[in-house]
């Protein structure tokens, strides 16, 4: 008596169809994932048709039905891979995986930002990223830098300077904000390095949002204030005439700088946190003031 083995024909047609699709994909230069996304449902259609054909042709005979477990397993594995590809595609992970495989990590330049400070009496700078600040004799604020990121094509991640920094002039005050770098789930974390040049003779107020900031002052002829910093590194040139006053500071460097440190209140109860240090340092005559408030660490280096 002839035995019908359900699954054998399905596996044969499935493998034949898959081979044809892979051949065409190489000829058309399509990737395997694209082929599987559109082709895998046909496997279940073929297996269903085979079972229906058996029922129609052999319903009046006594031919026993027997399943080809190995063939059904192969067909099922192909189908399972197809379901997984569809699931990953539906939640967006498949596209991210494709981008990760076919992309590369590069360091690219940020567009240059420039804003005039004519009629500006004060600059307020806020940053959401680690920042380098330097002084300049030019009457404008200039920013540039680099970003290390995943590049999927030739288009830059930032088309204009406004994508990473913005400014707005209100009255005699120029407000400048360095934006947070793009954060995309399931991708490489971008690393942005930004340097901002500010005029040495315009008062500056900086809100660091507890980011690390490096300040290099070739010359400083105005009062500046820095608030909410994780770490502030100050490099003073020889011709600076500055008094640094830091309040609510956890740590200061003491190897090369002789700070005047306000002692802790020794009479404070032991179960109460002791107040943070208040420190000061004078460079030159100390005519201009650099105020630092609420910082975890302050390090000052004076160039000789």
TrEMBL record:
Can you name this protein? DUF5668 domain-containing protein
Keywords, in A-Z order? Membrane, Transmembrane, Transmembrane helix
Pinpoint the LiaI-LiaF-like transmembrane region domain residues.
Answer: 11-52
Q: Give the residue spans that cross the bilayer.
A: 39-57, 69-94
């Amino acid at each position: 008596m002839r035995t019908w083995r359900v699954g054998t024909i399905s596996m044969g047609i499935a493998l034949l169809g898959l081979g044809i699709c892979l051949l065409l994909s190489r000829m058309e230069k399509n990737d395997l994932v694209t082929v599987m996304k559109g082709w895998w449902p046909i496997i279940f259609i073929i297996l269903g048709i085979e079972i229906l054909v058996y029922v129609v042709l052999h319903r009046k005979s006594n031919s026993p039905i027997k399943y080809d477990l190995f063939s059904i397993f192969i067909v099922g594995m192909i189908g399972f891979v197809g379901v997984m590809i569809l699931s990953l595609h539906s939640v967006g992970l498949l596209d991210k995986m494709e981008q990760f495989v076919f992309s590369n990590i590069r360091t690219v330049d940020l567009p240059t930002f420039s804003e005039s400070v004519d009629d500006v009496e004060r600059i307020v700078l806020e940053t959401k990223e680690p920042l380098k600040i330097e002084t300049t004799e030019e009457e404008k604020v200039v920013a540039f830098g680099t970003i290390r990121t995943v590049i999927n094509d030739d288009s830059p991640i930032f088309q204009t300077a406004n994508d990473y920094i913005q400014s707005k002039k209100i009255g005699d005050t120029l407000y400048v904000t360095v934006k947070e770098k793009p954060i995309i789930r399931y991708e490489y974390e971008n690393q942005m390095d930004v340097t901002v040049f500010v005029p040495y003779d315009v008062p500056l107020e900086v809100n660091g949002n507890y980011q690390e900031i490096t300040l290099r002052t070739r010359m400083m002829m105005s009062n500046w204030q820095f608030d909410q910093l994780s770490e502030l590194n100050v490099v003073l040139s020889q011709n600076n005439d500055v008094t640094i006053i830091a309040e609510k500071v956890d740590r200061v460097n003491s190897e090369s700088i002789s700070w005047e440190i306000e002692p802790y209140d020794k009479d404070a109860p032991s179960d109460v946190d002791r107040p943070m240090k208040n420190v000061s340092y004078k460079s030159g005559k100390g005519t201009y003031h650099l105020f630092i408030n609420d910082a975890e660490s302050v390090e000052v280096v004076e160039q000789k």
